[in-house]
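Exam prep: given the inputs below (a chain plus zinc ion), describe the expected output before reading on.
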Amino acid sequence: MAFPINHDMHCHTYLSDCSRHPQQTVENILAHAKKHGFKLQCITDHLWDRMAPGASNWYKPQDIEHIKKNLPLPEDDEVRLVFGCETEYCGGDKLGLNAANYDQFDFIVIPPNHFHMKGLVRPHEYTTEEMVADLLVERLEQLSELDLPWHKVGIAHLNCGLTFKEGSNAKVFRLVDEKRYRAVMKKFAELGAGIEINCACFGAGWREEEDAHLRLFRLAKEEGCKFYLATDAHTPEELNCVPERGGLICELLGLDEEDQFILT
Ligand SMILES: [Zn+2]
Ligand SMILES: [Zn+2]
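Solution:
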């Protein structure tokens, strides 16, 4: 059976500072999900928990209390709505969510490559594709060492355009060390984490560098990882990228039903 194009496990509402779109409400996101026959829709606004030290000024107002303004989520017969978050990871044990609060979320999206946040996520001295590729695999390795509720953790947007904005993202994806990357993906597979296929990362022109964009997912699949689809939508228009692009991406990756990450 083909990989189901019937879920979106990473999506922002107006509560995320980078959205603030008045129409990007839970109700409108749910209506979109119903229209497209989705079975699962996660709400994952940006989060830095007050109990986790080290938030940037941008993150500080986006605490648990703030994103909980979307609760209670509406009940629906067709679509399972899940309250989650997209927190931050800065290496070592610096995660934007304290262990005492893992229970507040049914899904936790962790981005390893918000490298546009220099000084917070990417140290200033990482200035070349080679260095950024090395940092990406190192962050994945460090993250895999943490004691997280892995059955409800998603590793976000591995081929994100924010990875190296001032250079070639495709080059970074090609330069990630295969041996180290395979080893950490094998570990994520064993831990039970989900690997995100973020359809927003497959925008205009991506097929010209198709192998670079698919490389990290192909290797992850070979190491036994499970995958989920995401829009990472910040606006109503962006909600369409799973229905529009998900099928092609999954086909090119050779994913089928058995490759799906299931959130219990
Ligand atoms: Zn992100
Ligand atoms: Zn996001």
